[in-house]
Predict the 3D structure of the following.
Amino acid sequence: MKKKLGYIPVVLILIIAVAGFYMWKGTARDEPGDVPSAGEETKVRVSVTTGVPVAFEDKVSFVGTIESEEDIRVSSRVTSSVQVLKIHVHVGDVVEKGQLLAELDEALVERQMEEVRASVSEAREATGQARSRFQTTERDYERYRNLFAEDVISRQEMDQMEGRYVQEKAGLEQARQRLVQSEARLRQMQTTKGYYRITSPAEGIVAERYFEPGDTVKYGEALFVLSRQERVKIKGPVTEK
């Protein structure tokens, strides 16, 4: 009986010792000295490294079409309806500046030019004749002035000669004006005839062709569309992902 009672104090002592240890440990955590105050600096160990630039590529794959950012309409500059005679290029052809693209029927303008050329020729001949008459009259006029100064001819004869001189001078001026007008008309017709030859205003690719030989084109209608290739863009559906 005494042996059994001897174990009880030992067990109680162990329980009290363990409980006291945990109580002491909990109290030690709450002590103010273990927590940094508000003004105290906290030192943290950090590592520093130097940044290196790295190139990143964003690649997007999609199906699209390449389009020019600048298209040029090549239109007829002939002021009347005219037939397309020849077409020298097709869609997709690469053309140079000044290259002949098409020819329009210039039969009418050629007949008009023949009339103007004949008018110029007549005006030149008339001007030559008027110049010759004036030169003759001018010499006679100077001679009459000398004779009148010497009292060889009468005042009436001098007035008649002076009238002829003024008339021939005016005739020469009118002939010159008609010649100038005829030559200006011829130059205008030559410019107009150039409109019947459709040339490329710039380098590019024939993107559209609207007429065929035998068709009739009106003033301002586009015969071709040229795509410039200096700057292009790609158009197509791109997902947001």
